[in-house]
Amino acid sequence: QSLPEVVPGPFSTDEALTSFDVATGYCNFFEFGPAKDDPAQHAHALQTDPWSIEIDGLVDRPGPIAMEDLLARFPIEERIYRLRCVEAWSMVIPWNGFALADLLAHVGVKSDARYVRFEAFDDTSIMPRAAQGLLDWPYVEALRLDEAVHPLTILAVGMYGEVMPNQNGAPIRLVVPWKYGFKSIKSIKRISLLAERPMPTWHEKSPREYGFYANVNPTVRHPRWHQATERRLHDGNRIRTEMFNGYEELVADLYAGMDLETHY
Amino acid sequence: MQASRMTSVIRWGLWGACGVPGLFLIWHWQTGQLGVVPHEVMLHRTGRYALLFLMATLALGFIQAFISWRPLYAARRPLGVWTFLYACGHAMTWLFLDQGGIWEFALAEMREMLHVKLGIAGLLLMLPLALTSVDIAPRLLGFKLWKKLHLLVWPAAIVVIAHTWVVSRFQSPLVVVLTLVILFLLASRLYAARAQSKAKT
């Protein structure tokens, strides 16, 4: 199902795109199972219509926002981003979405908010049993407010000009291209503005392996593997991993003065 | 006559049959039937085949302790050599497909990754076994030394199963079962060796 009126947006890379089949067939979406092809097989059970996002916490206008309202209010741009998974594979995906900053401006962020917490859908009735017990559901991710309002950070409602496939996080997901893929939470149901730092799911499960920031960084290794190279799908070529996934010029300022070995 | 005929049927049949999974894998690879990331499937399958053939080789030794049917001895060498061939295929898949044949990347992996170190150790332990699997080797080395050398299969098995533990992130029940099987086979081998040396004295 095609998305209407997608306009080209800024920051797009001209690298070769990962094919649609690979990007929709090789996914991590643990609610639907731990194997890469589980999401494509099981995510059809996800009901995405109707869908709304609950906005709460330190905002001027809390409450639910329906998908139709989001699509009517924010023009959909194409952003061709690199996606680097913490497991050392990567893709180039044309996302279709809008800046998270625009939504946050629309709901009005209060001055004492410092963090944004995202919560994914949670319905044990449609999760295959294999995924249960692996993580604490619902899946939670979080960004610092300045990361969340960075112009690179988008909420995507589609990819390749198509409505977001279920296995890729329909109907709406986060895309933060300079961080490992697990930060880009799928199928968002709730966005909360908070003063205190929330606890993301993977960070809670294994803080040594999955940092709060999870910035792509070839010089800081994962305890079980190094991060200096990555396998670009779908041709499978091994390439060098770039600092901040190649977005260093745009985002390095966010972390000025921080020791990235400590705040990984 | 009947037994020696059986021996060559088993020997040559196995030499061919053990190659079948590899041929299927190459066929599936070349015809795009390995899913969206074929290199990864190749890597996992070649590794699995090597492990399976290693288990079969070890298990055969155990079975022979109970069934002293001559032709069965002919099965050991094809199983052992094919274990090594699949292990080589696994290593080549890693080097040329997973690492893209880029030595700089491969060397970095060797330096930093435990599972790569274990994998290479396993391959190196099996190398002398494969090299001395030709007919002439036991005579050249002397049968006793040759037999001793081939005890290397046990350290190889332990290193290989450790490699499997690391790549399965210590989370696979199947790997636990395989480990128990290897330990059982090793224990039975040690027990048999002890009984034999007692009988001699």
Automatic annotation (TrEMBL), chain B:
Coiled coil feature spans: none
InterPro entries noted in UniProt: Fe3_Rdtase_TM_dom (IPR013130), MsrQ-like (IPR022837)
Molecular-function GO term, any one: heme binding
Keywords: Iron, Membrane, Transmembrane, Transmembrane helix, Transport
Gene Ontology CC entries for this record: plasma membrane
Cellular compartments annotated: Membrane
Name of the protein: Ferric oxidoreductase domain-containing protein
